[in-house]
Amino acid sequence: MRLETFEDKFIFFCGATLAWSVLYIFVNYNLDLPAKLGNKKINDVKNRVVSIVHGLFALCVSGYHIYRDNPEYAEPASKLQHIIILTSAAYFFYDFLACAYYGLADMGLIIHHVMCLIGCLSIEITNNATTALIGLFFSEVSNFPMHFRAVLRTLKMRYTSLYELAEGGYILLYILARGFGCTYLVITAAPVSEVPIPLRLTCIGLWMQSLYFIYEMTGILKRKIKNYKERLNKQISYNWFDDNPRLNELSYYKNEGNDKIF
Q1: Are 212 and 230 in contact (CB under 8 A)?
Q2: Residue 112, SS3?
Q3: How far apart are CA 219 and CA 242, in angstroms?
Q4: How wide is the angle at C-alpha 55 spanned by C-alphas 54 and 56, nearest 5°?
Q5: Which stretches of the chain are DSSP H helices?
Q6: How far is CA 120 from CA 79, 124, 181, 228, in A?
Q7: 204 CB contacts (<8 Å, ≥6 apart)?
Q8: d(Cα 218, Cα 215) in Å, to the nearest integer?
Q9: Dihedral through CA 198, CA 204, CA 208, CA 209, nearest 10?
Q10: Closest to 82 (Cα-Cα) out of 123, 141, 138
């Protein structure tokens, strides 16, 4: 497929959307989870497996392309760039529908996915993709620990060392990639006239959402430091894979809500 006409791109997009849906069906029938988790949490974990696959695909392929080809903001989109963007657009479309169907979508996810789809559409109309490819790379750097953290929380492993490692890695990578990498991208790409205005606005919108999440993360870090000091004072440590029997002595044990950072 040459991906030169809108019809070619639309057919590819539909095929990629079908592929993501088939992947979910495969995961759904082959990943057994305890029924006591409830249907909503089970569907969430299974959908996150698909999200992890997309994140690793986007991170590796966009990173390889950026490293190998060093594309410029003003360059016309290449066939590889179209493949990456259309595959990711299909994922965001699939994930939006899946999360809406299973009741997993919140306003943050809706805003994020809609802006991503608008950005992808502007790319295919204007044939300019480098800014989005670099943004996609930075955004997927923290994807795996983000979803892994959520899966561990669902599996009742929130108060383990493995969860602490996943959450700490997620927050660190998010701040580095989105706080610094995406800020650099916005500063350098926004003034380039060849970058489509809808894409520039999308990048700025997603960047602002990322800054908001970083602000939310500062609260999480403060709480984690407070909790660590309490564990230190009471000489209680986390186990790697299960709950320490002494966790009931901690004031915050099972009293923490879910953080709204995806």
Answers
A1: no
A2: helix
A3: 26
A4: 95
A5: 6-30, 39-69, 79-101, 107-126, 130-140, 143-154, 161-174, 182-189, 197-234
A6: 14, 6, 20, 42
A7: 186, 190
A8: 5
A9: 40
A10: 123
Residue 108 in contact with residue 262, Cβ under 8 Å? yes
User: Can you read off the two tokens belonging to residue 100?
Assistant: 């809406």
Q: Which residues contact 176 (CB under 8 A, 6 or more apart)?
A: 141
Cα of 142 vs its chain's centroid, Å: 7
With cut-offs at 50, 70 and 90, classify the pLDDT of residue 67: very high
* pTM over 0.85, yes/no: yes
Amino acid letter at 214?
I
Long-range Cβ contacts of 251-257 (<8 Å, 24+ apart): 252/223, 252/227, 253/159, 256/158, 256/223
pLDDT, tens only, 123-159: 888 888 899 999 999 999 999 999 999 999 999 999 9
Distances (CA, A) of 163 to 96, 149, 221: 26, 6, 14
Contacts 24+ apart (CB under 8 A), 254-259: 256/158, 256/223, 258/153, 259/216, 259/220
Of 8, 6, 1, 15, give the one whose Cα is nearest residue 87: 15
Encoded tokens for 116: 């991503």
**Two structure tokens written together for 153:** 């929380």
Other beta carbons less than 10 A from residue 121's beta carbon: 16
pLDDT digits (tens, 9 = 90+) for 159-212: 999 999 999 999 999 999 999 999 999 999 988 888 888 888 888 988 998 999
- Cα of first residue to Cα of last residue in the chain, in angstroms, is 35
